[in-house]
Structures are given as structure tokens and as C-alpha cells.
Design brief:
The structure holds two protein chains of two kinds. Chain A is α+β, with helices and mostly antiparallel strands. Chain A contains 16 helices and 30 strands. Chain B is an alpha+beta fold. Chain B is globular, with a radius of gyration of 20 Å. The chains are: A alpha+beta, B alpha+beta.
């Protein structure tokens, strides 16, 4: 069940003038807390079989044997799919599917390239039978020594980092910058492998009907994925339907095609029955991406006034042996601080691991975790308050290009965040604050930054004879609130109350809602919906002002405004008419409008565009046991127009909690001999529990941006992670005087030096 | 699926009769064992579900002041039993510092004693583990072992026992009541869990088929109720196993320590009672220096089994801290973050009476 089939559960919205800007509770909330929301794996078509992946337990080598006959002899087993019998694909999985596809492992051969790579698929009448069949395959391997770390991986010059970002960028004369410095601070930082760990694992329920394919799957990019599956299976794109009304978290891992989901679809094709395939938690540590490890080095030159003369950020990013996704960590240094010379460069490191991928704030999270500590260290070296140091190096224009910002209320973020936190009372020296219980207290800060892309998207709006509307786009709600915020934007454009608008979303057969990624979904799908609504209102106005029987007749030059389901003459609001009346007189059953989204190329060229923020953290540290607890977090963010402040605050909170996780808890522990992840479950791979989450404040700093898009929306989904990680690390230093340059910060890092 | 027989006996005698057959395993809440079955670490052929056994879910106060806790008493029921929490406050605090509320509502006293190590190599059937597969080796020794043992380990096994509950219990001299076809017997908890030696797969003193029916805490353990704390260092504030933990209890008379109890968690294959450290305190005037010395003595035989030397220093310090907190006195109410060094941070309490 999804919101578009359950409109009666939508709470009536109390309207105060406008739909957009209201803190409407999420429309899918009741469905979710009552268990009525159907996720992909809840779908059980008639005759469905269960498929399980057989994951490799070695990182490098080949599969020598699988005991297929033992598995097939087990009751309930329908098929065992191996490289020997798997049906052919129409696209080579060793090629990269444009635009964002990765090379995938779908049983194309017997080679093993990382731990948890699928090496077979077992299909059975029950999940239990399939699971036992997988065990009975008892794989034997020819093992090679895996490359698992900096000292045995192969370094190479990456052509690009992240999704097509430059690997090397230089602005200004970096050598001259360091020569001009009175002080140079230099340090190395490490970020560990992290896994998305969305609450909902990757799943697919695939049903073939001839050459038509219906997929229930969590997916952040419906149309793009449908097109990719069509190519893999050699069918027309219009034959693929993806239904994805809800995602139990995505964080980037559900935006890119992966081997297991293709194998689930392939299994359904091969056995001729619907198939469900769900990854276990442990199986998510490999084939569906992760945040790759980085080894970063930062070198900052400063002059006597504490102004940067040079900033050099280098990062080595781990990727797989067969594909390239190098965390674009160093590029964060291109976005934030003014310096006459800046250089960001990357190297790749080939390891026998699954290919990393984008994970919430890819690049910015890891890069900011290092940069913000380096900035703190430079401020310390200059004897300056970290906020004063950041203000002294405030970038009034984009540091590398000199382009103006489309908008940048970062100074206001600093001011409002610092005021709410009480930053001005912070002593410069570390280790000087204690609370009434004797705990060490430290205050740290970090600057948050994230780009604000706008992607192509399309939408349709239909005004019905009764004056209500249907709006449609293939949007994606992965928990961020698209069902709500996108509907608010459509209702706003249509001049209707939210409950007069039926919103269809989450399917690939709707107009292309674009990608829910890069923190750009509201700005993209929302703009398309808004334009579609405006299109309908324009058509309706045209009818009304040309209809001699309408009170709005002849208002063409003056114009009309839409609101509460009526059109009003702009200069005389006593003259108005309902949508239903206009349509009835015109004999129109409905009006259909369409809208698109896409950034104006001229604006994109002229302006630098980012969301910004400032995060302030307080930690307490036990002076003997060195246990750390984050006790306060204040974030102030400026991200253009806010459509739903309640949902936006939730995004900031979630991002900041992720920052706690990055700074103090998260790390996948790979055994360096085997590459096996030794904590691939949520008991041992730590993410915060409620008791780890302190008092938090998210300040929504007003920002009007006329250039990013007509609606002026930036993005809020990822920025909260950036800034927070460094703020916490800096607070730990301020509490203890100990600078930890690796994440997560652990007990022993502090204990060893105290 | 791997098939097994499921047997639900109606009496203890029926249960122990069934369990006498090879390949049998008792099942209570299953909060640990079912997980292990799912990943293939254990695979019993016959499961004897003991949850229906009568008379094992009571907390019984005996006339001599001792208490008998049935093996099927739930962790949360025991922790929230007012008289129990007042009499043995550090046991209640340890219980509430473990797992999650959902797990505590299910997990049983007997099952807690039987929980298996969290060593990643034990939990990974693709790794060598002498505990899981005798003679296969120990992949933890050169592996991810920062949380492994610093006392009592051997080259055959460096795993630690994960229980919080057992730490204050061993400090207070608890006894385990067991029953089998051969009759009933009582095993001191200190002798219940075994160090690995060269047989790390033998984890307890239980004989094949023996059923834990209850736990006993002696009357004299109540002497510590006014000065008893459990303290646990962990890598997130709840739902995490201990890096190291300590139970510390003092019996004070005229500013001097009449007797002391100290046990450590997360350092060895068993909850580790530090009797020499306890002895060092007897008759002493409580002070930071005697507590620090007790910490030194408690860890005197410790050495790293891997990249875990920090745990030794941490364990010394946590002993000293737990003793200092015990000296301050048992808190009047259960701290909102039980056993956390930060338990003083919040003014809220979890509502458990906790008065001596």
C-alpha cells in the first residue's frame, strides 16, 4: 500500500496561506508505523520462488568447484544457477552501462574479485530450502593472496574521481603560495571503509510476462534503472516497470545497478516463475557499494594574519581491482576557503574489494572530516579561534574560479550557530574546561558544504472536472519525505489544498522523476511538478479570461491568481470562480499540463552553487577512562528555499547523527589476510543508538537564491554529515589536547596519550 | 533447511531425559543460539525447548537470606524486581547495561550463563576456530583482536566471555544449580566457566545433558548492597558489548574496608574475579591510591593477546573507578544510563528502586 492508494489516511493539512513552507507531517507516516506500507520484499506474486545468493568467502582467485548435485538433491530446490548454466545477458557486465553504471558480477565467469561476490544463485520453493541449498554447494576455491591494504594494493593515477569529477585540480601557483607562507601545517588523516547499512536490505521481486518485466525493488533512479535493465535483458524500455513506493533508506547504494538484483531478475527469467531475492545483512558488505577508505594529507600555508596562502589536499582512495570509484575527498578543499593557491589531487588504490560507490555525501563527508580538522590545526598554529580563522579565510567567491556564488549565507550560519551554541565563551587552550562531575569538556566546529544540483525531471498534472487534481512523477521517497514535499510543491502551483491533490509517484511508468541523489530530488522533481501545475493553471486562465460568461472575462492583461481551487482577478479579488465552474462551462472533463526541470545553463556557468552550514559540537570525555560522549550539536544551514521545515530539520538531524557515527563509531573491519569483513552485522558494526544522540538543534538560516532554479530550492539531504565529523574530532581535541587523525576515534587513541 | 527435532518437555525430569541423547541442545529464549544456528556456527540435531518447564521462573527468598533465581527468569524481570535490585544493585545495573530492552525482555538467567563469545572468527564458519571446530586453529590470534582476552588465554583461543550479568554474580559468589539424570548438584559460578587451555570448545563445567535450573546468591552477598557498582566501557552508549567492565563492591565499617569484591568482564574467557585485589583492600582505609593498587593487582598477570594492550590499562583504571564509585555509595535510583561512566550526565532515572 502506498500513499496514492490510501488517500483517506492522509491527515488534513491546516493551511496558512501556502502549501510550500508548511511543516506538514509526512503523508506516509501512518502507513509506516502501522506496517501498512509495502516494501519491495512484501510483494509475493502467485507462484513466486525464493532465490539466495551464494557469496564468495575469498577475496581473490577462482571457484574450483560447487557441489551442484548435492544442492539439487535437497527438497524444494528448483534451480542452481552458476556460470556454466546461466542464461546469456544482452549487455556485457564487464562494460560500464552509461551514464553511471558499474561493472557488475553476475556469474559471467568463475573468477572471484572480492569477498561476498555472488558465485551462484540457488532458487527454491522456500527461503529455507534455498538457504540450505546454498550451504550444500560447499564451494572450493583456488585462492590467491588478496590485496587488502595500503602496503599491498596497487596505486594508480585516477582519470576521474567520484562520478566524473576531476582527479587533479590546481588553481594559482601552489609553490609560490607555500613560499609566501609564514607557517605551514601538515598532517595525514585516515577514514575507514563504511557501509550504507540501510535498514531495508537490497531486494527484488521480479516477474516476467513474456518480454514484459515487472520489478518491485527499492530504487533511487527509476527511469535510468528501467533503461539499464532493458539493455541487460534485451527488451524495450517500455516493457520494464519498476515499482518502488518506499525505500527503507538508500544513501546512494540503491541508485546504482548491482549484481545481486540483476541476478534475481535473471533467475526469474531462467526458471520461468516470479522470483524474490533479498540480501542478508552480511551479503550487503561487498556487491552493493560502500564508502571507500581514504588516506589523506593536508598541507596549509598561512601568513602572519592567519590568511591561507596555499592549500594542498591529497587523497588516496581505495577502489576495486576491476572498476573505478575513487572517493573524491580532496575536492572538498576546492569549495570552501579562500586561498590564492589551491591544489586537490587523488590517487586510486586497487584492492580486492567490492567497488565502492556513492554513500551519503560522497567525497564531502570524508574530505570534510580531514579538511575541517586541518583547518582547526592551522587555526591552533596561528593562535586563532577556529571561527575567527574560518572568517578570515571566508570565500566571497568560488576559491578556484572567482565566480560569484548564486547565494551563500554561510556567514549567517556561523553567526547564528555560534550564538545559539555560546561559542564566544570558548577558551582557546584545550583541556581547560571541566563540568561539575569532573568530565573534560571540549567545543569544536566545522563548516558544512554540499553542492546543490538540479537534474532533468518531468511531471504531469491533470485538473479534473471536480476541481481536484492528479499529479504524477516517478519520484523516490527513501525516507526523506518526497511523498510530502513534492505534493506540497504541486499543490502550491495548482492553487489547491494538499488534500485536493492526488499524487502518484514511485513507479517507472510515470513521467521521469529523475534521480533521488546528490541532494537534488526536491529541486528537480519538485520543479517539474511545479511547472506542470503552472501549465494547467495557465491553460485554465486562458479559458476563463476568454469566456464572456466568466467573472474573469477580459482579465487577460491584468492576470489572475490561483488559490483555494479558485481563480481570482489579480486586481479585484471579489471577482473569482472555482476551477470546477470554469471547466464545466467550457465542457472540459480535464486539463492536462506538463512540466520539466533542468538548470538554466547560463546560470550554471555564471555561478558557483552550494548549500552551506556551520556545525558546533560539545563533547565530554572521561578523564581517566577516555570514553567520549557527544553532548550537544548545533547546526545552522542555509540551503535556499525550505519547502517543509519539519522534514528539512529531520534531514539535518539525520546528517548530524551520521556525523557522530563517522567520528566515533563506524568502521568495517576487514581481516587483512583474507579481506573478509569481520563485523558485517548491526550488533558489531556500530551506528548510533538513541542514547548516543545528544540534544540537537538545527537552525534553518533563510536564504533566497534566484539563480539555482525558479523555485530557489537547494538541497538538504547530505550536508549535515559534512562539518559534523570534523566538529566532533575538534571538540575531542579541545577537551583532551589529543589530536586524533583517524576515524573512528577510539578509546585506545586517547588512552595511549594520557 | 537443516532439520532438527523439536521437543518441548513438560517437566525437568523429562527434559533431562531427552537431553541425555547425543546431539541435543537446550533452548530457552534463543536470543543467542538461534542466531548461531542461522549462520551455521552450531547445528544441534535435537532442540529441547525448556521454556515450558514449571517452577523455573521464580525469584525465591530463602529463610537464610539467600536468594534462588529460576533459570527461566527473564533478565528484565530480575533487574526490575525491587527487592532483588535493592539487595544486589550491581547485578541489576549489569543486567540493564546489557543488550537492548527487547533482548532483555526475552533473555533468561540460565541462557545468559551459556551465551557464546562474540569473537568474529568463532562467528564466521569460514575462519579457523578451535572453539567451533577443535583442532582447526585460531584465526583471531593474527586477526582483528583488539577486543580479545588479556588474561587466561592460550595459543588455542583468545576469546572473551561477553556477559555483563555474570561479572557481578561471580564477584558475589553465586552458585549454579544444575540437574541431570544423575541428579542435582551445585557448581560455584567461579568454576562454571572454563579457561580455554587446549580445549577451548569445552566452555563450562556442565556435563552432557545437564540443565541449569537456577542460580543462588548467598545471604552474605547482601552485605555489599550499600556500596556496589557495575561499570562498563563500550563503544556506543547502549546495545554494545563491553570493551572492559568491572563490578566492585565494598563492605565498609568505620571508614575502613571490611571486605571487598572485584570482578572484571571482557578480559578473559570467563568473568574474572580478582581475589588478590580484593584481599589487598581488606582493612585498608579507602583512598584513590589503594584503589589504583587494587587495579594493578587485578591485572598483574595480564598481557596482550593481540592489538589489545590498551585493554590492560583500561581495566586497571576501570577497577579503580568502579571501587571509587562503590565507595560513594550505591545510587538511590538506577542511573538513566546504567553502568555508563556518563551515568551522572542525566538527571533522569530509569525508575528502578535501588536503595540499600
Amino acid at each position: 500500500m502506498s500513499p496514492d492508494t490510501q488517500s483517506t489516511t492522509i491527515p488534513r493539512h491546516v493551511r496558512h496561506g501556502s502549501n510550500a513552507g508548511q511543516p506538514v507531517s509526512r503523508r506516509d507516516g501512518v502507513l509506516k508505523v502501522t506496517g501498512a506500507a509495502t516494501y519491495a520484499a512484501d510483494n509475493h506474486p502467485e507462484g513466486m520462488l525464493h532465490a539466495v545468493i551464494v557469496p564468495s568467502t575469498i577475496a581473490r582467485g577462482r571457484v574450483r568447484s560447487l557441489d551442484v548435485s548435492a544442492a539439487k538433491a535437497h527438497p524444494g530446490i528448483v534451480e542452481v544457477i552458476t556460470p556454466e548454466n546461466r542464461i546469456p545477458l544482452h549487455f556485457d557486465p564487464n562494460d560500464k552501462m552509461p551514464p553511471f553504471g558499474f561493472r557488475v558480477e553476475v556469474l559471467q565467469d568463475d573468477s572471484v574479485r572480492y569477498v561476498n561476490q555472488p558465485i551462484a544463485v540457488v532458487v527454491a520453493e522456500t527461503l529455507e530450502a534455498a538457504t540450505e541449498g546454498a550451504r550444500l554447494l560447499a564451494p572450493r576455491y583456488e585462492e590467491e593472496l588478496p590485496r587488502t591494504d595500503l602496503d599491498n594494493g596497487e596505486r594508480y593515477d585516477a582519470e576521474a574521481v567520484g562520478v566524473g569529477a576531476p582527479a587533479v585540480t590546481t588553481a594559482g601557483d601552489i609553490d609560490a603560495g607555500f613560499a609566501a607562507a609564514t607557517r605551514v601545517t601538515e598532517a595525514e588523516y585516515y577514514t575507514p571503509p563504511q557501509y550504507h547499512n540501510a535498514m531495508e536490505p537490497h531486494a527484488v521481486v521480479a516477474e516476467w510476462n513474456g518480454d514484459h518485466l515487472t520489478l518491485d525493488m527499492p530504487n533511487q533512479a527509476l527511469r535510468m534503472s528501467a533503461a539499464s535493465y532493458a539493455q541487460y535483458f534485451g527488451i524495450p524500455v517500455e516493457n520494464v516497470l519498476i515499482r518502488s513506493p518506499f525505500l527503507g533508506g538508500g544513501f546512494g547504494s540503491k541508485a546504482i545497478l548491482n549484481g545481486p538484483q540483476i541476478l534475481g531478475i535473471l533467475a526469474a527469467r531462467q526458471v520461468g516463475r516470479p522470483v524474490k531475492l533479498v540480501l542478508t545483512r552480511a551479503q550487503m558488505y561487498g556487491p552493493v557499494g560502500h564508502r571507500g577508505r581514504t588516506w589523506q594529507k593536508l598541507r596549509l600555508g598561512t601568513d602572519a594574519e592567519g590568511k591561507l596562502t596555499a592549500l594542498h589536499h591529497t587523497s588516496i582512495g581505495a577502489t576495486s581491482s576491476f572498476d573505478d570509484f575513487v572517493e573524491p575527498a580532496a575536492n572538498t578543499s576546492l569549495m570552501l576557503y579562500a586561498s590564492p593557491a589551491i591544489r586537490a589531487d587523488h590517487k586510486g588504490l586497487r584492492l580486492d574489494i567490492g567497488t565502492p560507490g556513492p554513500m551519503r555525501a560522497p567525497g564531502e563527508a570524508s574530505g570534510s572530516a580531514a579538511l575541517e580538522v586541518a583547518i582547526d590545526e592551522a587555526a591552533q598554529a596561528c593562535g586563532m579561534d577556529p571561527l575567527a580563522f574560518r572568517l578570515a579565510n571566508y570565500a566571497e567567491t568560488e576559491p578556484t574560479s572567482g565566480r560569484p556564488y548564486s547565494s551563500k549565507a554561510l556567514r549567517e550560519c556561523y553567526e547564528q550557530g555560534a550564538a545559539s551554541f555560546g561559542w564566544s565563551n570558548r577558551p582557546l587552550e584545550p583541556g581547560t574546561m571541566r563540568d561539575e562531575n569532573g568530565f573534560l569538556v571540549g567545543w569544536g566546529m566545522g563548516t558544512a558544504v554540499f553542492p546543490c544540483p538540479q537534474f532533468p525531471a518531468e511531471a504531469r498534472a491533470t485538473l479534473r472536472a471536480d476541481g481536484t487534481a492528479l499529479v504524477e512523477t516517478g519520484g523516490v521517497d527513501m525516507g526523506q519525505g518526497a511523498w510530502t514535499a513534492l505534493a506540497q510543491l504541486a499543490a502550491e502551483a495548482l492553487g489547491l489544498d494538499l488534500d485536493q491533490v492526488e499524487f502518484h509517484s514511485g513507479r517507472s511508468d510515470l513521467p521521469d522523476g529523475g534521480v533521488a541523489g546528490g541532494s537534488g530530488h526536491t529541486a528537480s522533481a519538485g520543479q517539474a511538478l511545479s511547472n506542470a501545475g503552472s501549465d494547467v493553471i495557465a491553460q485554465l486562465s486562458e479559458i476563463a479570461v476568454n469566456d464572456p460568461d466568466s467573472p474573469l472575462f477580459g482579465a487577460g492583461n491584468i492576470g489572475v491568481v490561483a488559490g483555494e481551487g479558485r481563480l481570482y482577478r489579480r486586481d479585484d479579488e471579489t471577482r473569482s470562480e472555482t476551477y470546477a465552474e470554469i471547466l464545466a462551462r467550457a465542457g472540459r472533463a480535464e486539463l492536462v499540463g506538463s512540466g520539466k526541470s533542468g538548470r538554466d545553463p547560463a546560470s550554471a556557468d555564471r555561478f558557483a552553487m552550494n548549500s552551506h552550514g556551520a556545525v558546533f559540537a560539545e563533547v565530554k570525555v572521561d578523564p581517566a577512562l577516555m570514553q567520549v560522549k557527544v553532548t550537544r550539536l548545533v547546526g545552522a544551514f542555509a540551503a535556499g528555499r525550505v519547502i517543509n521545515p519539519k522534514l528539512v530539520r529531520s534531514q539535518y538531524y539525520g546528517g548530524m547523527i551520521w556525523g557522530i557515527s563517522f567520528a566515533l563509531q563506524e568502521e568495517a573491519l576487514a581481516d587483512r589476510r583474507t579481506g573478509r569483513i569481520m563485523n558485517a552485522d548491526l550488533a558489531e558494526y556500530h551506528v548510533p543508538v538513541n542514547a548516543d544522540v545528544p540534544e540537537m538543534e538545527a537552525i534553518l538560516v533563510p536564504e533566497v537564491d534566484p539563480h539555482v532554479s525558479p523555485l530557489g530550492i537547494k538541497g538538504v539531504g547530505e550536508i549535515g554529515v559534512t562539518g559534523t565529523v570534523g566538529a566532533i574530532a575538534n571538540a575531542v581535541w579541545h577537551a583532551t589536547g589529543i589530536r586524533v587523525r583517524k576515524y573512528p576515534i577510539r578509546l585506545e587513541d586517547l588512552l595511549a596519550r594520557r | 533447511m537443516n532439520r532438527f527435532d523439536y521437543i518441548k518437555p513438560a517437566s525437568v525430569s523429562e527434559a533431562v531425559t531427552e537431553a541425555a541423547r547425543p546431539g541435543s541442545a537446550y533452548l530457552a529464549a534463543g536470543t543467542n543460539m538461534l542466531d548461531l544456528m542461522k549462520v551455521g556456527v552450531v547445528g544441534p540435531e535435537r532442540i529441547i525447548d525448556v521454556t515450558g518447564l514449571p517452577g523455573l521462573a521464580d525469584i525465591e527468598w530463602l529463610t537464610d537470606g539467600s536468594v534462588r533465581i529460576g533459570a527461566l527468569v527473564r533478565n528484565s524481570d530480575l533487574a526490575y524486581d525491587t527487592r532483588f535490585a535493592e539487595t544486589f544493585p550491581m547485578v541489576a545495573e549489569a543486567l540493564l547495561s546489557g543488550a537492548s530492552a527487547q533482548l532483555r525482555n526475552a533473555a533468561t538467567v540460565g541462557g545468559n550463563l551459556m551465551q557464546r563469545t562474540r569473537c568474529a572468527y568463532f562467528l564466521d564458519p569460514a575462519s579457523a576456530c578451535n572453539k567451533r571446530e577443535p583442532g582447526s586453529g585460531c584465526d583471531a590470534r593474527e586477526g582483528e583482536n583488539r577486543l580479545h582476552a588479556v588474561i587466561g588465554f592460550t595459543e588455542h583461543c583468545i576469546a572473551v566471555h561477553p556477559s555483563d550479568f555474570c561479572v557481578p554474580l561471580v564477584a558475589l559468589g553465586a552458585e549454579v544449580e544444575v540437574e541431570s539424570l544423575d541428579g542435582k548438584r551445585t557448581i560455584p559460578l567461579a568454576e562454571f566457566h572454563l579457561l580455554p587451555g587446549d580445549t577451548p570448545h569445552v566452555e563450562t563445567a556442565l556435563r552432557p545433558g545437564e540443565l541449569i535450573t537456577g542460580l543462588k546468591l548467598p545471604a552474605q552477598a547482601a552485605a555489599f548492597s550499600g556500596h556496589a557498582r557495575y561499570l562498563k566501557l563500550r563503544e556506543r552508549t547502549s546495545y554494545a558489548f563491553a570493551v572492559v567492565s568491572a563490578a566492585a563492591a565494598l563492605d565498609m565499617a568505620d571508614g575502613r574496608i571490611r571486605q571487598a569484591r572485584i570482578a572484571l568482564g571482557g578480559v578473559a574467557a570467563k568473568p574474572w574475579r580478582a581475589e588478590e585485589a580484593e584481599a589487598s583492600l581488606v582493612g585498608a582505609e579507602a583512598s584513590p591510591s589503594v584503589f589504583a593498587r587494587a587495579g594493578e593487582i587485578a591485572l598483574a598477570g595480564a598481557h596482550p593477546s593481540g592489538s589489545n594492550a590498551f585493554k590492560i590499562e583500561l581495566a586497571r583504571r576501570i577497577v579503580a573507578r568502579a571501587l571509587a564509585l562503590a565507595l560513594e555509595g550505591t545510587p538511590e535510583a538506577m542511573p538513566a544510563l546504567p553502568a555508563s561512566p556518563f551515568s551522572t550526565l542525566s538527571g533522569e532515572t530509569s525508575g528502578v528502586a535501588h536503595v540499600a
